[in-house]
Amino acid sequence: MGGGAVVQQEPTPLTRHLRIREHRGHTVLEFRGEIDIAAAAEITPALDRVTGRPGARVVIDLRAVEFFDCSGLRLLYRARSRVLERGGRLHLVCTHPLTLRVFRVTGLSRLLPPQPSLDAALEQPEAASG
């Protein structure tokens, strides 16, 4: 291969706050940095594209998130309902203690149990929809 072009396996960031990659047959949406209302507005179009596919298998990975507010929560609820409407699966990876506390307080962790790693998430049994 000439031309000095580097073949890049790592996808380019779509926005500062989102990277999308494939892992073991799942689409991984990796949220990054501070997820506030401005970041959520950047992320929504790509999130909707991924979660709009029939039978999508999606993992939202929050390990690179430093700050997460109610607009981030709305993104997760939106992703979950869109994926379940279309017969897909959604998993969540999160290790940040403050974000985990937000999930517990709001009840999101019952709907979307956070997993400590990508592999742990993908080993979960089929999540019941509804």
From TrEMBL:
Domain STAS: 16-125
InterPro entries linked to this entry: Anti-sigma_ant, STAS_dom, STAS_dom_sf
SUPFAM superfamilies attached to this UniProt entry: SpoIIaa-like
Domain of life, per lineage: Bacteria
CDD domains per UniProt: STAS_anti-anti-sigma_factors
A molecular function (GO) term: anti-sigma factor antagonist activity
Family per record: Belongs to the anti-sigma-factor antagonist family.
Name of the protein: Anti-sigma factor antagonist
